[in-house]
Every structure is written in C-alpha cells, then in structure tokens.
Amino acid sequence: MKMKLTMNKEADRREAETDELAGIIHQRTFNLMSSGRMMCSEAVLSVLNQGLGGGLPPDLAMKVAAGFPEGIGGSGCTCGALTGGVISLGLFLSESASKPAGRGKAMAASGRLHHDFKSRFGSTCCRVLLKNGLQEGSGPRFKDCCDRGGWVAQHTARMILAERPELSHQANQPFLRRRDSIITIGLKKAFYTLYALLCP
Predict the structure, then answer these.
(1) Is residue 113 part of a domain?
(2) Does residue 150 form part of some domain?
C-alpha cells in the first residue's frame, strides 16, 4: 500500500511538472508570435526545439518552418501552428528515418494532434479559422492565431513529454521564460536597418 502511494505521488509530481512546463511553452510561443518576432509555424517549432533540446540549430529550425505560415505559404490551407507541431513531433518522436517502424510514434501522435486541433477549433484550414474568428467576434484575428499557436505548442509538448519525460529535466528554462516586447523588436529592426544603410 505504501509503495502504491509513493508511486501515485511520483506520478502526480511528474504531471505537475509537465503541466507547468507546457504552460511556460504556451506563453513563450504566444509571446514570440504576438511580439512579431516569429510567425506561427516558426514559433511552435523554435520553442519546442530550443526549449526541449531538439538538437536543431535555431536558424535551421526557422528555415525548416519558414514556408508554413498563413496556411502553407499564405495559401490559407493547413494552419501553420499545426504544421509546426507536426514537425516537432517528428523531431522528437521518430526513431530512425531508415526504418519504417521508426516513424510510428510520430505518425500516431501527429494524427492525435490533428484530431485534437480540429475538435477544439472546428477546422485545420487557416482560411476557415480566420473567417470563423471574424464571424464569432472573438477578437482580432492576430490574437486568435497567437492563441492557437500557444495551444498547439502546449499540447504538442505534453505529447512529447508523455513519450520522453526525461526532457522536462533538461528544458532550457532561461529561453522559455524570456519575454520579447513589440518595442524591443521594433528597436532591433530599426537598428539593423540603419546599420545596413550606413555600413554597406
């Protein structure tokens, strides 16, 4: 009986750690999107990769996700946040590209993420999501996108940590807890623009 109670306490502690970390991942993703620093797919993949130690250099993660915002290159198709989550699941859960069985966990998790996203938001299509947001009067479309990006990152993190709980102990807390402001981003852009003009 005592061992069962100890196991339950340990499971509760792990679940609380996962909940806290997933919440921080949600906030960081929302922050990167709302500050204008990154778009949906870029923010989701970057936060999960850098926050949980996915191994991709940050610039490479941005390049990998660059074509997916606004429903794949602005076409309004699959939500960029969702595609960022699917890429992240592949990064963390696939075992080997050379073995067909090595992609099984990533594929199963991606299917669950797609299903959960559609159940929560009513569609996976960027164009439909934006239209629905306007019709329901749920606030500016941009905030809705940031909310969806945060949700996808949080939900994906939970799925990754369920399979790989050891990642919670090596999370990059300084990166995940950093906050960017629109003003800071604007000043950096202005500085780099001025620098480029003055120093060709």
Answers:
(1) yes
(2) yes
- Is 2 within the bounds of a domain? no
**Exposure of 127 by Cβ count < 10 A (0-12 exposed, 13-18 middle, 19+ buried)?**
middle
Query: How many domains, in total, are found in the chain?
Result: 1
Domain around 183:
11-198
pTM of the predicted structure, to 2 decimals: 0.83
Any domain includes 3 = no
Instruction: Collect all residues with Cβ–Cβ distance below 8 Å to 42 and sequence separation of at least 6.
Output: 32, 61, 62, 65, 66, 69, 84
Close Cβ partners of 88 (under 8 Å, ≥ 6 residues apart):
44, 45, 48, 49, 54, 156, 160
CB atoms inside a 10 Å sphere around CB 143: 14
pLDDT digits (tens, 9 = 90+) for 128-164: 998 865 433 344 578 899 999 999 999 999 999 999 9
